[in-house]
Amino acid sequence: MAENTWAARLPQVKSKAELVHETLRQAIAEGDLRPGERINMDELSRTLGVSKIPVREAIKRLESEGLVTSQLHAGVVVSEVDTTEMRGVFLAREAIEGLAARLATERVDDALLAELERIQDAMRAALDQGAVEQLPGLNSDFHGVLAAAGGYRILGELTEQLLMTVRRYRITTPRNDENWRDVVNEHDAIVTALRARDPEAAAAAAQAHVASQAGHEMLTAGGPDA
Question: Hey, which end of the chain has fewer CB within 10 Å, N or C?
Fold first, then answer.
């Protein structure tokens, strides 16, 4: 049996560095660690019950992802979100998510549609209950499932990275309930196109969704496109 086949059968056990990375990444995404906030690696090591080695490895990975920055005299801090780069983030999302939606129509099945509908129902319930804090995570779930359905790992990774940037940006420019309802309605258009197995409509719906949200961000930020 080929070596890579054996490797595929091994259990996927996460290292301590990976667990620290995921913990910090989630804290940054949720705003528990805010832009400009210093990360005390000694304190983090004690809190998580790990040595400094996995903490340093996790920090290096976060730095390569642009989520933290090493500053002279300040140590490691959570990176600021560059609002001038947000337009580029949305342009990249529009291209990538349009492609992902198109590819997903080639692999769509009842399980995929059911999962997307489950997330949509959860988003509607959160809106009705005023649980707005649940919506960013659910929104990321929707786009993550859609990207994974395209069948290419790199699309999922790129989508996740771009959504992380958007989520961090929205900590300082949060959406209102009306805009979140627009998000759910725009998601519905994507699901409808997937159900019809229409690649052109799916790509167009995904791109229109991202463009709509980009317009909202520019308006909220009072940027040049406001």
Answer: N
Q: How far apart are CA 168 and CA 25, in angstroms?
A: 11
- d(CA 198, CA 62) in angstroms, rounded, equals 38
pLDDT of residue 22: 87
**Residues 176, 142: Cα–Cα separation, whole Å:** 19
Task: Give the DSSP letter of residue 33.
Answer: S
Distances (CA, A) of 38 to 34, 41, 42: 9, 9, 12
23-32, 45-54, 60-69, 191-200, range with greatest mean pLDDT:
191-200
Q: Where are the alpha helices (DSSP H) in the chain?
A: 3-9, 16-30, 41-48, 52-64, 86-104, 110-129, 135-149, 153-172, 177-195, 199-221
* pLDDT tens per residue across span 108-135: 999 999 999 999 999 999 999 999 889 9
On the CB side of 90, CA atoms within 13 Å amount to 20
Q: Which one-letter amino acid corresponds to residue 218?
A: M
